[in-house]
Design goal:
7-stranded mixed beta sheet; 12 strands; 37% helix; binds pyridoxal-5'-phosphate
Length: 410
């Protein structure tokens, strides 16, 4: 059987040992060394000239390589890079592929910190238009002469809007635009972004990929589908060799080498071990989330539940078509007169905490926390009510979760 035909988890758990590790190790060892030495100096020269190998840990280590290899298989990609955090991966992608005078079309339903980055890009002279990415016509209408890139999330936080992923892929292909998808909330297990002609997949590894909440990380995967030969922003020095690697090479040189947002080998090991169980965890988390969404939807004190698995969700059919399951993030509004903080304080299994994709169920009041800085008007534009609660559903036993919410809402 060809490796590419194997199942998601089979590929991941056998990924490291297929790298022919020393002593038959089945896990890639942690190489803490920052410099890499050579008996013949030609070896060092070769690495500097672009041959495979390691010279200095800001660009790569064998442990980082092993994780990148694993992520690339998960994402069905051509090449992957890992970063110190999801934000490092995202911001590096923008800063290395866009320049002043370019235009970026971006979903208006965004992770709060990515939303904040848009203001930074604008201050550097990169023009940004925020649009309703569930609507392909809004994306098309935003196109300008200088548009280079479209950036969307799969399922958006906290209202769970789903971008018109397939239609945007067709549009970007026709227009020659770089199509970047933040796949964090779905992960490559729920959603194979290469099916919708994505150019680059960015993922926060801190969430479902690691799962255990003990490591920060991010990744960028090039699908191999974008033609970098036609992309004006690739510097002359990187226009050589396999053109499918031009984009990711520029992100590596300008981003990892020059900007330095690299992951350490210690952390790569933690992410790698966590990633082995992603499919198992996500199946359980998604099943728990659906059960909780259905429970909350029929509860008399709950006014509205936002979850793609409910038939009441505006993009339910899109989610059903594109994703293996419906994700494990859900939000809800209480009936007027009930205080969401009071209810959150009564939860005993669920933890009042930010973060998502953890093995434990976490909940928070959205408006005064993760979407506090952006202000009321921006929240309203994103469909975020002032009393909304967001839950990141974990792997606990379903009955315990439902019982916890039942007693808190009683
Ligand atoms: C958490 C998150 C990020 C940022 O990732 P970090 O690893 O926390 O830097 C980016 N996008 C989405 C959708 C996220 O949920």
């Amino acid at each position: 059987m060809k490796m590419s035909e194997q199942g998601f988890t089979t590929k991941i758990v056998h990924s490291d040992r297929r790298l022919n590790l020393e002593y038959g190790a089945v896990h890639a060892p942690i190489y803490n060394s920052v410099p890499y030495g050579f008996n013949d100096v030609q070896g060092l020269i070769d690495v500097f000239q672009g041959q495979p190998g390691h010279a200095y840990a800001r660009q790569s280590t064998p442990t980082i390589d092993a994780l990148q290899h694993k992520i690339c298989q998960m994402d069905n990609g051509y090449a992957s890079l890992v970063f110190a955090s999801g934000m490092a991966a995202i911001v590096t992608t923008f800063l290395t592929l866009l320049k002043a005078g370019d235009h970026l079309i971006c979903s208006q339903f965004l992770f709060g910190n990515t939303n904040s980055v848009m203001g930074t890009l604008q201050s550097y002279g990169i023009d940004v238009t925020l649009v309703d990415a569930t609507d392909i016509d809004a994306i098309k209408a935003a196109k300008q002469e200088n548009t280079q890139m479209v950036f969307v999330e799969t399922i958006a936080n906290p209202v769970t809007q789903i971008s018109a992923l397939q239609e945007i892929g067709e549009f970007c292909e026709n227009e020659g635009l770089v199509y970047v998808i933040d796949n964090t909330l779905t992960s490559s297990y729920l959603f194979d972004a290469t099916k919708v002609k994505v150019s680059l997949i960015v993922t926060s590894l801190s969430k479902y990929v690691a799962g255990h909440g003990n490591a920060l990380g991010g990744s960028v995967t090039d699908s191999g589908l974008f033609d970098w030969k036609n992309y004006a922003n690739i510097f002359a020095g990187y226009r050589k060799g396999d053109s499918k690697m031009w984009g990711i090479n520029q992100i590596k040189k300008k981003g990892l080498r020059d900007m330095g947002g690299c992951m350490s080998s210690q952390i790569a090991h933690l992410v790698s071990v966590g990633s082995e169980t992603m499919e198992l965890r996500m199946q359980r988390q998604c099943d728990n989330a659906l059960a909780l969404a259905e429970f909350l939807e029929q509860h008399p004190k709950v006014a509205k539940v936002y979850y793609p698995g409910l038939t009441s969700h505006p993009q339910h059919l899109t989610a059903k078509k594109l994703f293996k399951k419906f994700g494990a993030i859900l939000s809800f509004d209480l009936v007027e007169g009930y205080d969401c903080c009071e209810i959150l304080n009564k939860l005993t299994v669920v933890i009042n905490a930010t973060h998502l994709g953890d093995n434990r169920t976490l909940a928070l009041p959205v408006a005064p926390t993760i979407y506090g800085e952006m202000g009321l008007e921006a929240r309203q534009k994103m469909g975020i009510s002032e009393t909304m609660v967001r839950c990141s559903v974990g792997i606990e036993n379903e009955a315990d979760l439902l019982a916890d919410f039942a007693q808190a809402l009683a």
